[in-house]
Design goal:
This protein has about 150 residues and is α/β, with parallel strands linked by helices. The chain has one domain: 2-enoyl-CoA Hydratase, Chain A, domain 1 (Alpha-Beta Complex), CATH 3.90.226.10. Strands 1, 2, 3, 4, 5 and 6 form a 6-stranded mixed β-sheet that branches. It is globular and about 40 Å long.
């Protein structure tokens, strides 16, 4: 079952990754500027981040809204955050519906691997248990944890 979910996620990624990370040499060298990103499917985000890393593309989180799986971009490699950015953290779910305990733990661990310490510890201890709404963390707070300032 877990392999099937991963396969379905990977198969549905092609279009979303193409939209998320521009193709072409010039576009690949341009920074990916995140201004408003409400998140999405974790598996698709992992694939997009893998592509960003392979392209060595800079990610700039500058906007007022980086929610859910968008926060995983913190682990995309060359990342900077604007001090005024707002990042929203919550645990994994199936479009707001609870996962089984195994699924919840699995996807929580996946998400956490993209966060710097101590954000990772906080996420695993507290933030992942919030499914409705978000814990808001400012760009300034993330910068204090070691992420570069834009």
């Amino acid at each position: 079952m877990r392999k099937m979910r991963k396969l379905v996620g990977v198969l549905s990624v092609a279009a979303s990754v193409a939209a998320f990370v521009p193709a072409g040499t010039e576009a690949q060298n341009a920074p990916l500027v995140v201004s408003t990103d409400r998140g999405g499917v974790i598996g698709e985000r992992v694939t997009a981040i893998d592509r960003i890393r392979a392209l060595r593309q800079r990610v700039e989180i500058r906007g007022p809204l980086c929610l859910s799986s968008c926060t995983m971009l913190l682990g995309a490699g060359d990342v900077c955050v604007d001090p005024d950015a707002k990042l929203g953290f919550h645990g994994p779910s199936l479009y707001g519906r609870p996962l089984t305990e195994d699924q919840f733990d699995y996807w929580s661990e996946i998400m956490a691997t993209y966060y710097p310490e101590p954000l990772r510890r906080w996420f695993m201890k507290e933030a992942r248990f919030r499914i409705a709404g978000y814990y808001t963390v400012t760009g300034e707070n993330v910068i204090e944890l070691g992420v570069k300032r834009c």
